[in-house]
Amino acid sequence: MLKKGSGMTEQAEITAFLGKGTEFKGVLSFEGTIRVDGKVEGEILSKDTLIAGDSAYIHGEITVGTLISSGKIVGNIAASQTVHILAPGILEGNVKTPKLIIEEGVVFDGKCEMAGEKKSAEQKVVPLQEGKSAS
């Protein structure tokens, strides 16, 4: 679908395609799966899947169900299901998702928040035990 042999098992029909050389500015909202290989500036909103190919450049806020990217993204990402960044992807911004996959060779400059609604209630803080006593 996006890259061969990267362990991706989900196959979805692409409902829209912004090819290499296309530019879009504004708010992009969609249903289904969309693939971007061009340039998008603005906000992307969907409960479904956004695929950003190697030549994609996205600058703005992304709120989707699933993001799969091997392009360059500058901006914050909120994904309700998964964020999967493939090499040679570049991500400059913060990520909020319950599941994050970053392949070797990716550049990620930002912060990540992975605690979902269920996980945050279940998480416990366990103090580390020191090997020596401080006497």
Question: Tags for this entry?
Answer:
single chain, 135 residues, mainly beta, 13-stranded parallel sheet, 13 strands, globular, disordered N terminus
What does this structure look like?
The chain is mostly beta strands and 135 residues long. It has one domain (14-114). It has one helix and 13 strands. Strands 1, 2, 3, 4, 5, 6, 7, 8, 9, 10, 11, 12 and 13 form a 13-stranded parallel beta sheet that branches. The longest helix is centred in the last third of the chain and has 6 residues, at 117-122.
In a nutshell, what does this entry contain?
By secondary structure, the chain is mostly beta strands. It has one helix at residues 117-122, and strands at 14-18, 23-29, 33-36, 39-45, 49-52, 57-69, 72-74, 77-85, 90-92, 95-96, 100-102, 107-109, 112-113. The protein has one domain (14-114).
Helicity level, as a percent range? Answer: under 10%
Gross geometry: globular
**Mean model confidence by pLDDT:** 86
Termini, distance in Å? Answer: 60 Å
Share of β-strand residues? over 45%
* Biggest sheet features: 13 strands, parallel
SSE map:
Blueprint: E1 14-18, E2 23-29, E3 33-36, E4 39-45, E5 49-52, E6 57-69, E7 72-74, E8 77-85, E9 90-92, E10 95-96, E11 100-102, E12 107-109, E13 112-113, H1 117-122
Parallel strand pairs: 1-3, 2-4, 3-5, 4-6, 5-6, 6-7, 6-8, 7-9, 8-10, 8-11, 9-12, 10-13
